[in-house]
Amino acid sequence: MSIDRKEALGRGRILAFSSIRVVACIAIVILHTFNVAEILYRDQILNTDRMITMAVVYCLMWAVPCFLMVSGALLLDPSREIPLKKIYCVYLPRVLGALIVFVFVFRLFDMVMTGEAMTADVFVSALLKLVTGGSWSHLWYIYLLIGFYLLLPVYRVLTDAGNPRLLRYFLLICFIFLSLLPQLELTGISSAFQIQIAGIYPLYFLAGYCISKGIVKLDIKVYALLLVLATAGIIFLTFLRFSMSFEILDILLGSYASPFVVLQAVGVFGLFFEKDRKAGIDKENNDRTGKMTKIIDFFDGNSFGVYLIHMIWIRLVLRHMMIDPYDMGWWFFPVFIIGNFVLSSLLVWVLRKIPGLRKIL
């Protein structure tokens, strides 16, 4: 989430990147809260409640892609030197350390909540979950980051070449083959045309860099239109999915490769970035002393830790305390989400005072 934040402070337009990460972090807390609530209580609620819940989830799928876009904008900048030593001595140790620590933390949490006895097998089972990805599902993003850091020198070859047409071509090909063509499965047709890239995520990584450097440049109104139209499309398809039981639409709605999610992410990232650019915030006049900026900096600096920790409160309250938010009333969602985000941020802030934990949070 904020892995590259320290080095980016003081660089041009960092305020936009910080704002994007904070908003995306809040969106993830909302998404996970609604998603877990639907999973736990779907058999006890009306179809309309399920539809509203999943509309919120699907409409916020842009959050993780926006994190990747910020990372791409920062890490792919040719003006920054990122040697292999830095990748293996700074970036990778942090994400690997966070992954290892929290796989064990989540394993211990599950044991306490289920009353499982502490045995010598705890270490082995946690290690197995670490290797197989069998821990809590939201840690998938940490595994994704590890892959990006390992391949960062390869991705930087494209940006170091400084060929805007080549980058735009690459983004277009990725969008067509990794986002549009896979949606043919909705009609029962499987496209045989492929490009050999593992998933949609490099598209987001490179798109963040291209938008931040003006290689892909749209008017702020166009970015807003992309966001509005894509979100409206998601809401309409969610209505069809639940009102007419079109379960096949789950393939489209629940995928980060969805064209709607791609357009949403581009819209959100472009809106913040263009708003920042029009405000004239750059390396020379970037004022980081305002109260709002300090608040953004605080939550941005703790966003990586919040991503890791916020699921503890969701599991504790919704699953183990068995509090049904639908039974409590819809007011419960915003109250719990705000409380979770603020409490998690404060907890991370305290934990980062501890030298060892500061390096991974």
How would the blueprint of this fold be written?
Elements lengths: L4 H4 L5 H28 L5 H13 L3 H13 L8 H31 L6 H12 L7 H21 L3 H17 L20 H12 L7 H24 L6 H4 L5 H20 L12 H11 L1 H18 L4 H4 L3 H20 L3 H4 L3
Helix pairs in contact: 2-3, 2-4, 2-12, 2-13, 2-14, 2-16, 3-10, 4-9, 4-12, 5-6, 5-7, 5-14, 8-9, 9-12, 10-12, 14-16
Molecular structure report:
This protein has 361 residues and is mostly helical. It has one domain. Helix content is 71%, strand content 0%. It is built from 17 helices and no strands. α2 runs antiparallel to α3. It is globular. The termini are close together. About 3% of the residues have low confidence.
* Terminal residue distance: 10 Å
Q: Compute the number of strand runs.
A: 0
The helix-strand sequence is: HHHHHHHHHHHHHHHHH
Q: In the residues, how many domains can be counted?
A: 1
Number of contiguous helices: 17
Shape descriptor reads globular
Radius of gyration: 21 Å
Low-confidence stretches are 9-13, 281-285
Q: Characterize the main sheet.
A: none
| Strand residue content | under 5%
What is the average per-residue confidence, as pLDDT, rounded to a whole number?
A: 89
Briefly note the structural class of the backbone: mainly alpha
Helix content estimate: over 70%
